[in-house]
């Protein structure tokens, strides 16, 4: 039996949309992206687990082929973890809204400085041997 192409397309759409939203600067959009991506991956687990069968409890079926219980257990565990992550990110979003009335993440100036410095070094053509000199310059800037 071949996998259901509709479920694979729905799973791909959920994962793709989730990744797009996860890259947003808004905490709420990132949360929705995480939820969509998690549901798409759970659906993909179920599609990849093979055809449906009897319940995986001995003595409950009528002797037909049983379904594999491992993917079902993994999906159940993923649902619980997703619920916990959702609660945590909602608490972060609520706190960010209380503090700044905005849920957009700000630029990290230290990260931007490091990226600028790396681009300058790439343009200057510095080699890996100059790593100690660069580290010393960073230490001087921090002082």
UniProtKB/TrEMBL annotation:
Record key words, sorted: Cell membrane, Membrane, Transmembrane, Transmembrane helix
Intracellular or extracellular location(s): Cell membrane
Keyword Transmembrane helix: yes
Chief site of localization: membrane
Top-level taxon in the UniProt lineage: Bacteria
InterPro entries membership: CPA3_antiporter_subunitC, NUOK/Mnh_C1-like
Membrane topology term: Multi-pass membrane protein
Spans through the membrane: 6-23, 30-50, 70-93
Family per record: Belongs to the CPA3 antiporters (TC 2.A.63) subunit C family.
The name this protein goes by in its record: Na(+)/H(+) antiporter subunit C
